[in-house]
Amino acid sequence: MTELKNDRYLRALLRQPVDVTPVWMMRQAGRYLPEYKATRAQAGDFMSLCKNAELACEVTLQPLRRYPLDAAILFSDILTVPDAMGLGLYFEAGEGPRFTSPVTCKADVDKLPIPDPEDELGYVMNAVRTIRRELKGEVPLIGFSGSPWTLATYMVEGGSSKAFTVIKKMMYADPQALHALLDKLAKSVTLYLNAQIKAGAQAVMIFDTWGGVLTGRDYQQFSLYYMHKIVDGLLRENDGRRV
């Protein structure tokens, strides 16, 4: 394995001494870069960009060519997992992501498959492998997933939401259905992140974007508990290196 030329980010995560604070940015590949806009136009739409390993690699690397960042982060989307479960992800202009088949009850949850990361999500693993190859050991690659709670908000609401009334109704009126969904998502995310690690991600993150809409007690029960389950199931090493 190629030695990293800049391992500052990984050393900081392991609580080892670093010379300066390592930096990466949320959405460091994105619309502020004219080259990103050109690549997205080439792809045709956002999900086509995510599903093309070469183009996903290109936009992952674009910010590193401009700025001395300490890590690359996989260009993808948190909704790849529910999309792979068959909910019919699409993007509505001005409204963001939507699902054609939102989850409304326990019967819907029971029908959801747990995606095979190397099959339904194989395009993500191909992107990870391509990015690692093209990074040539310059900086580490971060993989990621959404948290079960955050993914569930989109799956139950049918897309983006401001009030989260539908999932909160399920949380209080049918907690069994919501817990079943969160448990299935925790299993799916664990498999997904472990596959990213095996494909070459040197660190992985769980984004709990909408955890803040829960009370402290509900957060413990409906979000943190399931993230703990994921972390407990993650690989700690890959190819002889600490993840």
What does the model show?
It is found in: Cytoplasm. Residues 22-31, 142-158 form the Uroporphyrinogen decarboxylase (URO-D) domain. Homodimer. Belongs to the uroporphyrinogen decarboxylase family. By secondary structure, the protein is mainly alpha-helical. It has a single domain, classed as TIM Barrel (Alpha-Beta Barrel). It has eleven helices and seven strands. It has a three-stranded parallel sheet with strand order 1-4-5. The chain has a two-stranded antiparallel ribbon with strand order 2-3. Strands 6-7 form a two-stranded antiparallel ribbon. Helix 2 runs antiparallel to helix 4 and helix 4 (53-66) runs parallel beside helix 7. The longest helix is centred in the C-terminal third of the chain and has 25 residues, at 175-199. The model has no long low-confidence stretch (mean pLDDT 95).
